[in-house]
Amino acid sequence: MTPEQVNKLITFGQMALEQGWHSKAREYFEQTIALDASNQEAMEGLARAEEILSRRASFEPTKPETPPGKPASKEHPIAEWVREKRREYAEWVDKRRWERERRAAERLAAEERRRQEMLEREAEEYREWWETGVAAWEERYSQDELMGGFLMWALLEHDDMFDDFF
Q: 53: domain CATH number?
């Protein structure tokens, strides 16, 4: 291990002592001594942590120490209320989102129905117009006259269409 890493362990141990995590400080100092048995700073820190732990053990009943990074077992009285309010808000947001999506789906379905009905009406009108128009033309002209008229129109309007045939 490099001297820099040993110095980091000593720094972590001193920080743990300052924060009141004496057991964790002892662990850091013991790790440092295991790596460098002649380190005077680590020995002094370990002695200080041991002294504090023994003094505290003689005055207080034993209770588990909260290690760093873990929450205390006793939570703030309002914490449960805050969690409940967050849950209620999340449910309210989900409900609003669901309602908005449902209304949008209903609007789309209604629009699709209107569009389909309009297409059906237009198709029916076109069918009636076609049938009445074809019937009127058939009454007025014979099949040959109609075909001849179409060919004449095609020749006049689209003469390039018949270049391959003639």
A: 1.25.40
